[in-house]
Amino acid sequence: MDGDLWLVVGLGNPGTGYAANRHNVGQMVLTELADRGSANFRRHKTNAAVAETRVSATGPRLVLAKPNSFMNLSGGPVAALVKFFKVPLERLIVVHDELDIPFDTVRLKSGGGHGGHNGIRDIAAALGSPDFVRVRVGIGRPPGRQPAADFVLRDFGAEERKVLPNLLADAADAVELVARVGLTEAQQTVHAPRPAR
């Protein structure tokens, strides 16, 4: 096991048709992290696209992974990645969309239930444990009576897209902070009230 290595998995569905969906915001955050380190994603035998980077020149190493499976089948690739890179679960960070958090909000947690998120459900089942870090990227609830399943598979709206780069940056910052200082200290920073933007 590499002592400063973190595995960061961004959830979503494969293919260009899904790329801009709300459900794919986890993979968008990984693109932001890769861009910061000028890292490129390459096909990996774990059924994922993988890029390697660092938080800073001397900071922790990050293996960034986007499973090639559909969201509801994320567990297989994640379990294979954990095994391949020999990462303990406390150094696994899963970045995903969260209906129960307002849009443009990031929250951190470890363990607990899946909250109806089928990607998280499948990962916990495949790993035999829910005890991994989650970076929960708020997408908010659908308006009116729109079914949640339709809402998450739609692209962000025009007004949301104006704010989206800031949200992706905040979530990427949260990933880097967890890797640098640990979950508890990162929560104190990320969950602190912030000025409106």
Automatic annotation (TrEMBL):
GO BP of this protein = protein quality control for misfolded or incompletely synthesized proteins; rescue of stalled ribosome
Entry annotation: catalytic residues:
23 (proton acceptor)
Give the residues the record marks as binding tRNA.
18, 70, 72, 118
- Cell location: Cytoplasm
Q: What does this protein do?
A: Catalyzes the release of premature peptidyl moieties from peptidyl-tRNA molecules trapped in stalled 50S ribosomal subunits, and thus maintains levels of free tRNAs and 50S ribosomes. Hydrolyzes ribosome-free peptidyl-tRNAs (with 1 or more amino acids incorporated), which drop off the ribosome during protein synthesis, or as a result of ribosome stalling.
Provide the protein name.
Peptidyl-tRNA hydrolase
Question: SUPFAM superfamilies per the record?
Answer: Peptidyl-tRNA hydrolase-like
Q: Which organism is it from?
A: Diaminobutyricimonas aerilata
Q: How does it assemble?
A: Monomer.
Per the record, the domain of life is Bacteria
Q: Which family does it belong to?
A: Belongs to the PTH family.
Q: Which reaction is catalysed here?
A: an N-acyl-L-alpha-aminoacyl-tRNA + H2O = an N-acyl-L-amino acid + a tRNA + H(+)
- GO MF annotation: an example: peptidyl-tRNA hydrolase activity
By its UniProt entry, which Gene3D superfamilies does this protein fall under? Peptidyl-tRNA hydrolase
Q: What enzyme category does the UniProt record give?
A: hydrolase
Q: Write down the position(s) of the site called Discriminates between blocked and unblocked aminoacyl-tRNA.
A: 13
In terms of one coarse class, where is the protein primarily found? cytoplasm
The UniProt entry, under InterPro entries, shows:
Pept_tRNA_hydro, Pept_tRNA_hydro_CS, Pept_tRNA_hydro_sf
Q: What cellular component GO annotations does this protein have?
A: cytoplasm
